[in-house]
Amino acid sequence: MKKLSIIFVNLIVFVIAASAIDVSNPFFDNLPVAVNKYLYVNFPDLKNVEWTTTIDGKYDVVFIAGKQEQEIVLNKEGDFIESKMEVANTDLPAFVVTRIKDIRNIKFAQKKIVANGDQQYVVELLRKNKLSEITFDSIGQVVAERPLSE
Q1: pLDDT per residue over 55-67, tens digit each?
Q2: 3-state SS string for the chain
Q3: Please, what's the b/e burial string for 39-68 (b: 16 or more CB within 10 A of its CB; e: otherwise)?
Q4: pLDDT tens for residues 137-150?
Q5: Residue ranges covered by each domain of the chain
Q6: Nearest C-alpha neighbor of 35 from the set 55, 61, 54
Q7: How many angstroms separate the CA atoms of 64 and 50, rounded?
């Protein structure tokens, strides 16, 4: 009888715990269940969530996790496309700092991770009163550069 009572109590605890993780009751209305599930599983403590739907049907979600603002892009099936988070100039890899030479010219920097796991660093840089955006791959090669101001 004592074993049966212990099993019954464990079963009740399991049912209560399982009901607390019900992803069919989403964090956020108007988001697909798969997107909600991804957010719930990967960022259970997220706050200040805002999202938009892109032209091609992806979900661009911006939120605070811990003390860090993050942005992730997911498709409607909840598959990860990319993430972005701001990086302090002093936290940039040496290869980025070496290429830029003077980090005081950096106005904004972010780390970007794409679906295959590759990391990129996107830097907004002011040179000669012109703002430009440069994207570096994980080994320091420039993969994109574009002016942001004339």
Answers
A1: 898 999 998 888 8
A2: CHHHHHHHHHHHHHHHHHHHCCCCCCCCCCCCHHHHHHHHHHCCCCEEEEEEECCCCCEEEEEEECCEEEEEEECCCCCEEEEEEECCHHHCCHHHHHHHCCHHHEEEEEEEEECCCCEEEEEEEEECCEEEEEEECCCCCEEEEEECCC
A3: bbeebeebeeeebeeeeeebbbbebebeee
A4: 888 889 998 888 65
A5: 87-150
A6: 61
A7: 10
CB-CB contact of 92 with 102 (8 Å) = no
Report the Cα–Cα distance between both ends of the chain, in Å, rounded.
81
Give the type of residue at 144. Answer: A
To the nearest 10°, the Cα dihedral for 150, 92, 115, 44? -110
